[in-house]
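Tip: read the tokens left to right.
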């Protein structure tokens, strides 16, 4: 993230405020209840403000977390805490969401992860 500011300053110099936007299953706020507060995904989420709405994200999450195509966790084998949390959530009937968020791209310090 810090590199993004340097790149933007070099390629598109401007004194105006900049924001980063992103869309991912990693921004699904349900993950905050499934993972530990110090997990990298939860720490990343704290740096973004979510916009309203979402899309179904089971397939995208399974592709990223298990390298598996499709929306069924049937062949998923948990080797990490994230994988186990995902399988537990899906087997309990839950689903994941593809969320979009934004964050300010500050000049100094604003690119750091905020405390909970």
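Filled-in amino acids:
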């Amino acid at each position: 993230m810090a590199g993004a500011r340097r790149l933007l300053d070099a390629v598109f110099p401007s004194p105006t405020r900049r924001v980063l936007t992103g869309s991912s299953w990693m921004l699904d706020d349900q993950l905050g209840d499934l993972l530990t507060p110090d997990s990298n995904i939860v720490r990343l989420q704290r740096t973004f403000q979510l916009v309203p709405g979402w899309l179904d994200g089971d397939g995208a999450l399974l592709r990223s977390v298990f390298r598996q195509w499709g929306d069924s966790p049937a062949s998923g084998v948990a080797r990490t805490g994230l994988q186990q949390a995902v399988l537990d959530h899906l087997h309990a009937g839950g689903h994941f969401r593809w969320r979009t968020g934004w964050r300010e791209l500050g000049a100094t310090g604003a690119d750091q992860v905020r405390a909970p």
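The CA atoms of residues 1 and 23 lie 15 Å apart. The radius of gyration is 16 Å.
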